[in-house]
Inverse folding.
């Protein structure tokens, strides 16, 4: 177990951008005319994310990831706003 944790931390250091653990509900669209499927974004970075899907859900090689978060504006200027994600 300790060996695995040491290897895992070394792998994380090699990533180009830091990952942040999150638990965002999301959907993926297979883009083939079939319906949206539920998933959970488990962690996210500037370059990618780790998704958790239900057992038996088939994932195509490429898809559209959709997620929404309820937000509150915490600052704004002429052309930009800063938002805070709200829980729930």
């Amino acid at each position: 177990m300790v060996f695995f944790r040491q290897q895992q931390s070394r792998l994380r250091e090699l990533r180009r951008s830091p990952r942040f653990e999150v638990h965002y509900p999301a959907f993926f669209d297979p883009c083939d005319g079939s319906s949206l499927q539920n998933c959970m974004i488990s962690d996210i970075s500037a370059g990618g994310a780790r998704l958790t899907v239900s057992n038996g859900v088939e994932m195509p090689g490429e898809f559209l990831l959709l997620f929404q978060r309820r937000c509150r504006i915490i600052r704004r200027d002429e052309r930009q706003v800063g938002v805070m994600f709200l829980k729930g």
